[in-house]
Automatic annotation (TrEMBL):
SUPFAM superfamilies: P-loop containing nucleoside triphosphate hydrolases. It is found in: Cytoplasm. This is Shikimate kinase. Keywords: Amino-acid biosynthesis, Aromatic amino acid biosynthesis, ATP-binding, Cytoplasm, Kinase, Magnesium, Metal-binding, Nucleotide-binding, Transferase. Pathway: Metabolic intermediate biosynthesis; chorismate biosynthesis; chorismate from D-erythrose 4-phosphate and phosphoenolpyruvate: step 5/7. Substrate binds at residues 32, 56, 79, 141. Its main location: cytoplasm. It comes from Pontibacter akesuensis. Pfam families: SKI (PF01202). Its EC number is 2.7.1.71. Its cofactor is Mg(2+). The gene is aroK.
């Protein structure tokens, strides 16, 4: 079985995914890290060289490869991954999806302290610009994130809630 974590940049997919995988004895794969290792380029370089459109193609290919090459895994997706092509349909077809629903203010605080330069879509933005970018992006992406099989709010004991929900 595959458990896909979806949500905005900074919502904690990588952090929670790693903890959850360890706790339930699944492999853990971070989709962004997988693409970076495969391409030998940072996310910022990939955006600079091929544009966002090329990155989205690589992201879709990577999703397909992961599902083909693993039996079960926790997969932390990139923030935009479920929102391009029919990726959310693909994700829900191959496993369970969990949306990490975190308020904009909390995301902004985490992303400001955690290096915007690694995330090309956020580079060079002031705090106010970051907040409006996040709010606009969420407004558009909500329709995809809301198709997750399960939604977790920021305040929950997330590993325990997911385990309980999946009977693991
Ligand atoms: N539950 C939490 N409480 C407080 N801080 C957290 C929590 N989860 C993650 N963080 C912090 O928020 C930042 C972003 O977390 P993380 O990299 O896991 O997010 P992400 O969803 O994988 O983002 P991206 O889509 O950009 O890969 C990190 O600095 C991390 O330490
Ligand atoms: O929200 C997004 O569109 C992104 C999130 C990151 O995980 C990376 O996949 C990349 O920086 C794009
Ligand atoms: Mg991540």
């Amino acid at each position: 079985m595959f458990i896909f974590l979806i949500g905005m940049m900074g919502s904690g997919k990588t952090t929670l995914g790693r903890q959850l995988a360890q706790e339930i004895g699944y492999a853990f794969v971070d989709l962004d890290a997988y693409i970076v290792a495969q391409q030998g380029r940072s996310i910022a370089q990939l955006f600079a060289e091929g544009g966002e459109a090329r990155f989205r193609e690589l992201e879709r290919q990577a999703l397909e490869e992961l599902v083909e090459n693993h039996g079960q895994a926790v997969i932390a997706t990139g923030g935009g991954a479920p929102c391009f092509f029919d990726n959310i349909g693909f994700i829900n077809h191959h496993g369970q999806s969990v949306f990490l629903d975190v308020p904009v203010e909390v995301l902004a605080n985490r992303l400001i302290t955690q290096g915007q330069e690694q995330r090309p879509l956020l580079a060079g933005k002031s705090r106010a610009e970051l907040i409006s970018y996040l709010a606009e992006t969420i407004a558009h992406r909500k329709q995809f994130y809301e198709r997750a099989s399960y939604t977790l709010s920021a305040s929950e004991q997330r590993v325990q809630s997911i385990k309980k929900w999946l009977n693991l």
